[in-house]
Amino acid sequence: TNNIDATISGSGNIDCSSVSCNDVFAHVSGSGNIKVFANKSIDAKVSGSGNIYYKGSATNINLKSSGSGKIIKA
């Protein structure tokens, strides 16, 4: 897959960790969790208590978090 845009506002979970993507945008606003697989780039933002877990060989990495949430390389 070329790209994926995964967004959670509020609560919920998205698991795309078994889908290899070139470019990933992941945004959590609230208490949800997102799991992604990024090969080239990842733009991940967390605001709140949610988490983003990412794996893959992305070299263009932009990570921002505010609140108690975390962005974790899996």
From TrEMBL:
Domain of life: Bacteria
Putative auto-transporter adhesin head GIN domain sequence ranges: 1-58
Matching InterPro entries: DUF2807 (IPR021255)
Pfam families, per database record: DUF2807
Gene3D superfamilies noted in UniProt: 2.160.20.120
Protein name (record): Putative auto-transporter adhesin head GIN domain-containing protein
Organism: uncultured Segetibacter sp
Origin organism lineage: Bacteria, Pseudomonadati, Bacteroidota, Chitinophagia, Chitinophagales
